[in-house]
């Protein structure tokens, strides 16, 4: 007998295909979906509006397996980094970020990452595997339960471990579950998918009609610099990415968000600011500047705060909406670019048992 199949992470059409051989009525898939994602049922006997025979047959053939919280690391600023154990094996990290009455969940799409961006700790891990749609959506469910925030009271960013568009099928399936009316019923505009620059997948996602937001991590204004920071840029250089951004705008009616990690002496000059204005015009909704979070294992240094402000002002002076993302959760290695320590990466100044960083400051 084959092992039972995990239903968690399947959308209504996929559930209908699994239930049809059991003689289920067409509407049963919507009921099962609502039970798993809206009512958080984790056992088939709980699904009281399904027939006893169907519940019994489902229990024989299927399971409902979801991620679990292995550890939680609260920061002094209210951010919480989570180490999450996956049903398929391995662990990833997710982060709950409170900010001025709002909540954002930063979730992961892969165990590790294959893209090896030089300013991101996750890239030092390499890729172990893609997450299933249930392992992605299940992180949202865990953080909802742990923080007490209900659906549509928070935002979701696919900015944790992994490149979401490299795990295209898992990411899109999770988005369908998260936004589906019989799934989590999240507003699509509350979800942002961030990519390091997989141009064909940007265009493919634009055609999915999911209407989520897209953020492109640009972080350089010349191909020479970007290829040094993002190995993927050698395959999809800046001109190709901007072409994909124009396709995104044409098919979705919305511009992308540009993310720009500032690195001292590498991409933070006045000339970089001028080139960024030229590149962003017509394709970007806004530019989010991200101060780099230094760690001893990465070969970069952060632009001083005065330089960050000057760079921001140079963009604003040219009429762009530009903001500086506050670094949150640095003391527990939960800030942007730092997710990896709980997954086994050692560092000078390691994390203490409570998740805080000792030794050299991040």
Key features of this structure:
362 residues; alpha/beta; DNA polymerase, domain 1; TIM Barrel; 2 domains; 10-stranded mixed sheet; two-stranded parallel ribbon; 10 helices; 30% helix; disordered C terminus
Describe it.
- The chain has helices at 12-19, 28-38, 52-61, 133-147, 168-179, 199-206, 223-229, 238-252, 270-280, 305-317; strands at 5-6, 62-63, 68-74, 80-85, 91-99, 102-106, 110-112, 127-130, 155-158, 191-195, 213-217, 256-262, 284-291, 322-324.
- The protein is elongated and about 70 Å long.
- The model is unreliable at 343-362 (pLDDT under 50).
- A ten-stranded mixed sheet has the order 3-4-5-6-9-10-11-12-13-14. A two-stranded parallel ribbon has the order 1-2. Strands 7-8 form a two-stranded antiparallel ribbon.
- The chain has 362 residues and is of the alpha/beta class.
- The longest helix has 15 residues, at 133-147.
- It has ten helices and 14 strands.
- Strand 10, helix 6 and strand 11 form a beta-alpha-beta unit.
- Helix 4 (133-147) packs across helix 5 (168-179) and helix 9 crosses helix 10 (305-317).
- The N and C termini lie far apart (51 Å).
- The protein has two domains: 5-63, DNA polymerase, domain 1 (Orthogonal Bundle), CATH 1.10.150.530; 68-343, TIM Barrel (Alpha-Beta Barrel).
How many discrete domains?
A: 2
CATH class of the largest domain: Alpha Beta
Sheet with the most strands, sense and barrel status: 10 strands, mixed
Strand content: 15-25%
Number of strands: 14
Strand order of the largest sheet: 3-4-5-6-9-10-11-12-13-14
Q: CATH superfamily membership of the largest domain, which one? A: Aldolase class I
What is the fold-level CATH name, i.e. the topology of the largest domain?
Answer: TIM Barrel
Q: How many H/I helices?
A: 10
Radius of gyration: 21 Å
Level-2 CATH architecture of the largest domain: Alpha-Beta Barrel
Estimated helix fraction: 25-40%
């Amino acid at each position: 007998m084959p092992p039972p199949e995990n239903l968690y992470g399947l959308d209504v059409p996929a559930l209908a295909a699994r239930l049809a051989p059991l003689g289920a009525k067409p509407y049963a898939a919507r009921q099962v979906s609502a039970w798993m994602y809206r009512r958080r049922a984790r056992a088939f006997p709980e699904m009281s509006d399904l027939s006893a025979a169907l519940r019994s047959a489902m229990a024989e053939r299927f399971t409902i397996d979801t991620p679990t919280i292995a550890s939680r690391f609260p920061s002094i600023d209210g951010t919480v980094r989570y180490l999450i154990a996956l049903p398929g094996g391995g662990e990833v990290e997710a982060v709950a970020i409170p900010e001025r009455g709002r909540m954002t969940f930063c979730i992961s799409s892969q165990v590790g990452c294959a893209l090896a961006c030089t300013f991101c700790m996750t890239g030092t891990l390499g890729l172990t595997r893609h997450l299933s749609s249930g392992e992605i959506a299940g992180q949202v469910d865990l953080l909802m339960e742990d923080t007490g925030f209900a659906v549509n009271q928070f935002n979701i960013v696919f900015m944790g471990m992994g490149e979401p568009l490299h795990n295209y099928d898992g990411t899109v399936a999770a988005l369908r579950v998260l936004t589906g009316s019989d799934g989590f019923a999240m507003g699509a505009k509350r979800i942002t998918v961030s990519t390091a620059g997989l141009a064909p997948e940007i265009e493919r996602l634009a055609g999915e009609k999911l209407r989520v937001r897209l953020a492109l991590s640009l972080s350089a204004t010349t191909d020479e610099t970007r290829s040094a920071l993002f190995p993927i840029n050698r395959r999809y250089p800046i001109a190709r990415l901007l072409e994909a951004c124009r396709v995104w705008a044409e098919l979705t009616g919305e511009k992308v968000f540009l993310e720009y990690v500032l690195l001292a002496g590498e991409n933070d000059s006045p000339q970089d600011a001028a080139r960024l204005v030229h590149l962003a015009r017509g394709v970007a909704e806004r530019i989010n500047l991200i101060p780099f979070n230094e760690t001893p294992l990465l070969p970069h240094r952060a632009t001083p705060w005065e330089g960050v402000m000057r760079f921001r002002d140079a963009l604003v002076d040219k009429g762009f909406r530009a903001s500086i993302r506050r670094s949150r959760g640095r003391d527990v290695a939960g800030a942007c670019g730092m997710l990896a320590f709980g997954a086994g990466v050692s560092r000078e100044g390691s994390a203490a048992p409570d998740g805080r960083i000792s030794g050299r400051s991040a």
